[in-house]
Structure formats: C-alpha cells, structure tokens
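Saturday, quiet lab. Running sequence design on the structure tokens for the scaffold JK sent over.
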C-alpha cells in the first residue's frame, strides 16, 4: 500500500515537472562534437571559467583525469568550441594538458598581481586521501607559454607544492589586496592532509626578476583543518565585503570561516547552524534567494538531504535556516550545484548535477522565486535534455559562449565511465532583459570575491557574489549574470573585498550588454555619481544605495494594535507590542518571547540557557559590566601598534598613514610614497 502511494506521488511530481516547458536543449553535436582532440571520451572532473589566452573572451578549463586537461575556446564564426591546449609542444598551452596529473579540480585567479589569472590544477593521482604521488600544478603565463610555478627551484626548496589528495580548489583574496591565495580542500587521512592555503610570499619574491616565492599560510590564517574536504565557496557570506569561506565536508562538520578582517579566519559553522555534521557535502553555491541583501548557501549532500540555507538575523542573531522542500532535499548522488538565472526571468534556478551511480540518476532543476511576505517558493522545473539519466556527471559550469545574453551549460562526466562533455542551451526567456557585470581588481584581473548589486525599476535590488570557488571541483565564471524579465536596471554597484566600492547609473543603451567595472583608482577624489536607488533605498554620503530606516525616518509609521516598527531591507514591518520578562524580548513577529541574544555571533563563545547566559568574548572584545561583549580599543590597549595613526572599529583596528606615505605590507608601518 505504502509503496503504491509512493509510486503514485512520484509519478504525479514527475509529470508536474515535465508539464512545464523543458529548460535545456542539447547542443553537443553542433557545438562540441565528441572527437579525440576537442572532446575526447575520457574521465573528466572539474571545470573553471577564465580568459586563458588573454584575448578578453572567456574559455572553459576542464580537469582531465585519465587524459589531458582541456581549454575550450568559442569560435564565433564557426559557432563551435575547440580545444586550444593542443598536443603540440610548441603550443603556449601545451603544459596545461599535463596528462600525468590526474586532475580533478581547477580554479583560476591572479596570485602575483600582474593582471592575468594563474591556473591551479589539483591532482589526486589514485589516492583517495592523505598523500598523493604527483603534486598539484600552478600555471603562470610567462616566456610566451604557461609554466608551473610550483616546480620553480625556489618553490621546490620551500617545499610548498601540495602533494595531498584533495577535492575542491578555490581562490581567496583574504586581505583585499587584489592578490589571491589558493584554498585547497584536501582530504585528510588521519593527521595527514590538512586544508592548505598557497599564496605569494611578497617578502621572498622579486617580481622584477620574475621570482615568485610561494608559501602555505593555512596555519597562520587558521584554516589548516583536517577533514574530508569536498565543496568550497568564497565570498562575502557573513561579512559585508571581506571574503569568507564555506566548506561542506565529508565525515565531519562543515566549516564557515568568517574573515576576522586581517586575513585570519574563525569557524562559526556551529553557531550559525550550517555545520550539518552527519551529512557529506558536495556541490555548493552562494546566492541571495530572497533578495534581502544577505548571502544564502545552497548545497547538495551525497545521498543525503540537500540544503537551501537562508541567512537570517532574527533578533540580531545570525542564523541560517534550511527552507529546502521535501522534493528539493530529496537525497541523490549529487556532484556540482549551480545557482543561476538560466531563463533571465529574474528568479534564480538551482541546478543539481547527479552522477549515475548504481543506476540512473537524472539531473534536476528548481526555480526559487522571491515572495514578498514569505520565504521563497521552490518549484521543480522540467530540466529537458540536460536530464542525462545515465550521465556520470562530475562537474558543470555556466557561461555565455556565444554572447546572446543567455547562459550556456557545460557538464563533465567521468569517475566510473569515460564520457565526453555535453553542452546545453536554454530554450526559454529569449525576449527577457539581462545584464552581465565583470568587476576588475586594481591590477585589472577578475575580481573574484566581489559583490555586485543592481537596483531596478520594479523589482528592487538583486545581488550576486563573484564566487572564488563554487560547484564541486569547479569555479564559475567571474561574471555577475542578471536576468531581468521585463524589468530594467537603474544603478550598478560593486563592492570589492577591501571595502572599496563603485556605484553608477546605468543608461538605457547599456541594458542587455556586458559591463566592465574597473577598480576605483581615484576613490575619494571623484564626486559620487547621481544614482537612482528605488523605493526603500537612498544614496548615502559615499554615493552607495543603502536601506532607508523608515522606523526612524517616520516614527509614527506603525499604529493601532501593530505599534512596533521593524525595519527590513527595502521596507519595514509593523508588529504587535509584546511584554516579556527579564532576560527575554519579543521575537520578530511579536508572537512569543525569546532569550535576549547577548552572545551575538562572532563576538563570543557563549553558553546561554533560558533567560540567562554566560559569555566568553572572542579576542578583540571584552566582557562589559552589562554582560555584553564590547569593542576593545586596540589602539589604546596596544599603544604604538601603528607607526602613525590608529583607528579602531567594531572588530579590529586599522593603521593609517599621513599624506605622502602609504601603508606597508604589514599594514602597520608607513612607507614614503
Ligand atoms: C605545432 O605548433 C607550431 C607553432 O604553433 C606549428 O608551427 C607547427 O606546425 C605545429 N605542429 C604540428 C605537428 O601541428
Ligand atoms: Ca580568451
Ligand atoms: Ca597573474
């Protein structure tokens, strides 16, 4: 009886999803027909999107496991993708093939600040965990070709090459300098194989002589943890602009590394409710699904419940809340997870890439639609020809190859059966508006970790994070892709990991185009542009759109039996007044009394029981007589820490230099500019 019911409900749900128009159509035969050179039938894994050949167009990097790595470039006249990393020793891309590597993950970012992205391949060989027999490779374009920095003499002497079996790899601008570190989610065996963080050691390097010395700074940064590493995302998750890191791990809790503001990290996954200790994470992505300006996290668990964690801050307490429906959460052998607006209707979709494993397992797609006074609506769509029920999916990425403003999907396969890559185009939404935004670093490279917000005529702000990682074993394109339906954009705002920002109006002729946003070289000198922020928002003194606090601006906006005003992102709510006893306060709806949250996140290690609490403050804070963690004035406490001026703010201190000086690499001394 039970089984019949299950079957009936499964059929119902399938037919419902299939009734909607199919999202994807297969284009592999036209765009990338399987052949030995361009799309070999081999075991592939991760994908990354970057400009490999430096011509301004994006290519797709493919981590080849039992064959070469590939670099797929789009030829506009022939309308095909082809591999430029050809089997010819005089090709500038030859070294990238690295057949011996058994690569599974790949990511690209500018580690030395020359404006061009380096490429990191994570090679596991046949090792599942712990030590591998062949090291990872970090390729830089120099001497007219790509060469491996990790095998330079200086780096061999420094013993910096990662020789561990890892999984995902991601890029992190931990200090906001525009020079990136490589985050490596190793898979530990006992005490061997902690997560690694490789970056340029500026003091030991001599860029004018072409010497790039690398170091593993994972211990110093506080991320050298032992776990079964899987997916990694990088961007402002709980921080406003600085890059945080989320890792969904296997056989252990996830990590949510909050950036302490100085390039070191504190794991707050447990406090934030995203540690998920009994599940085994895979693909992961960042998005703001409910458009409240806070970054949400979506990820798949291997044959476990998939999660859609909305970031909330009810009663000032930062928590993530899982809003996955039963259908969305349904366990599957999931690999990459992608969030994007495929049909440009301005709502986000979540694509699950499943690997056929002990039987068929189709890929799936869900639309997550924002609602005004409720959590987003999650509905399954018809994935169409991208179902690949028997595909051994191992990775996937999106970009817009052909420049038509709609995302194209590329899926890799491998693990247990050699299969070629497949390419899909989106059937729907051709008449919808779109905008693609590419922020650049101060060096002119892709600003991975930046946050891009557009303000629109009708639908309020939309936020994208240029993720330094994402998917599983993958790294998405360094582009903020916005679908807009019939709406249009009034203002574009970019916030870089160092806190600098640009906001500028969008003119009508810039709709449906790719917008490059350079790093602001003249910050503070230019007058902020006149911008239109839309209802509920206003430009602040820095020329950025910020949420209006209606409750302060219009003190009597709430009345009657809903007297209490609660400011929200882009609006406000009125709720009934409620009296609560000592140690308690009303919840956000005023329907119940909850503990007063004093041990707020990031400030303290806290044990709180009903109506009482005890706090131990984190470094940088001290326990005040009222029992709250308050700012330590570090400039006072450690007088002389800065060579010239010192300024302390809520969680750290910053040194400043007088005119004519600039801050040194240690961020404390001042150098004559
Ligand atoms: C290899 O590449 C070089 C330089 O691009 C070219 O001149 C040569 O003909 C190529 N060799 C083969 C066998 O294709
Ligand atoms: Ca290119
Ligand atoms: Ca570079």
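Result came back. Writing it out in full:
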């Amino acid at each position: 009886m039970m089984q019949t019911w299950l079957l009936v409900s499964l059929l119902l749900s399938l037919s419902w999803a299939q009734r909607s128009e199919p999202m994807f159509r297969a284009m592999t035969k036209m765009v990338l027909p399987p052949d030995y050179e361009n799309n070999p039938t081999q075991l592939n894994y991760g994908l990354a999107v970057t400009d490999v050949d430096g011509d301004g167009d994006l290519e797709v990097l493919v981590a080849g496991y039992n064959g070469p790595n590939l670099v797929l470039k789009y030829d506009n006249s022939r309308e095909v993708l082809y591999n430029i990393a050809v089997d010819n020793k005089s090709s500038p891309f030859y070294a990238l093939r690295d057949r011996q590597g058994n690569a599974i993950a790949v990511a690209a970012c500018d580690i030395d600040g020359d404006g061009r992205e380096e490429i990191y391949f994570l090679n596991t060989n046949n090792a599942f965990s712990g030590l591998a027999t062949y090291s990872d490779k970090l390729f830089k374009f120099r001497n007219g070709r790509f060469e491996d920095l990790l095998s330079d003499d200086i780096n061999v002497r420094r013993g910096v090459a990662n020789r561990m079996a890892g999984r995902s790899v991601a890029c992190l601008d931990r200090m906001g300098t525009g020079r990136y570190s490589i985050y490596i989610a190793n898979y530990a065996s006992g005490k061997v194989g902690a997560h690694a963080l490789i970056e340029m050691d500026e003091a030991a390097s001599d860029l004018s002589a072409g010497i790039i010395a690398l170091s593993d700074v994972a211990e110093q940064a506080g991320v050298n943890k032992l776990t079964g590493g899987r997916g990694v995302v990088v961007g402002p998750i709980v921080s406003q602009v600085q890059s945080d890191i989320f890792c969904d791990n296997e056989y252990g809790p996830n990590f949510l590394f909050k950036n302490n503001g100085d390039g070191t990290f504190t794991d707050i996954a447990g406090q934030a409710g995203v540690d998920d200790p009994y599940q085994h994470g895979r693909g992961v992505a960042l998005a703001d699904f409910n458009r409240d300006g806070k970054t949400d996290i979506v990820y798949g668990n291997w044959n476990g419940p998939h999660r859609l964690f909305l970031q909330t801050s009810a009663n000032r307490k930062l928590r993530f809340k899982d809003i996955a429906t039963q259908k969305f959460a349904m366990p599957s052998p999931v690999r990459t997870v992608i969030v994007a607006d495929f049909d440009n209707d301005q709502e986000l979709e979540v694509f699950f890439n499943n690997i056929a494993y002990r039987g068929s397992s189709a890929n799936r797609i869900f639309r997550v639609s924002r609602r005004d006074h409720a959590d987003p609506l999650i509905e399954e769509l018809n994935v169409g020809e991208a179902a690949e029920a028997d595909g051994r999916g191992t990775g996937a990425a999106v970009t817009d190859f052909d420049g038509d403003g709609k995302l194209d999907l590329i899926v890799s396969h491998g693990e247990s059966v050699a299969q070629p890559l497949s390419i899909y185009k989106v059937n729907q939404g051709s008449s919808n508006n779109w905008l693609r935004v590419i922020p650049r670093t101060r060096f002119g490279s892709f600003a991975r970790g930046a946050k891009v917000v557009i303000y629109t005529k009708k639908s309020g702000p939309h936020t994208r994070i240029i993720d330094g990682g994402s998917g599983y074993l993958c790294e998405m394109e360094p582009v903020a892709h916005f679908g807009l339906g019939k709406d249009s954009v009034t203002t574009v705002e970019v916030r870089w990991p160092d806190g600098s920002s640009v906001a500028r109006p969008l003119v009508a002729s810039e709709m449906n185009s790719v917008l490059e946003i350079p790093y602001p070289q003249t910050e503070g000198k230019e007058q902020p542009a006149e911008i239109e922020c839309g209802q509920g928002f206003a430009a602040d003194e820095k020329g950025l759109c910020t949420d209006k606090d209606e409750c302060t601006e219009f003190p009597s906006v709430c009345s009657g039996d809903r007297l209490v005003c609660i400011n929200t992102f882009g609006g406000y709510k009125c709720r009934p007044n409620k009296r609560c006893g000592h140690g308690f306060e009303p919840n956000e709806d005023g329907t119940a009394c909850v503990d007063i949250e004093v041990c707020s996140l990031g400030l303290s290690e806290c044990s709180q029981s009903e109506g009482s609490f005890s706090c131990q403050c984190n470094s940088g804070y001290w326990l005040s007589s009222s029992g709250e963690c308050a700012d330590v004035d570090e400039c006072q406490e450690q007088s002389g820490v800065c060579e010239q001026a010192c300024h302390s703010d809520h969680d750290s201190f910053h040194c400043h230099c007088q005119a004519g000086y600039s801050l040194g690499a240690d961020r404390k001394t001042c150098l004559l500019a």
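Notes for JK: The radius of gyration is 25 Å. DSSP finds nine helices and 49 strands in the chain. Ask whether to fix the surface positions before the next round.
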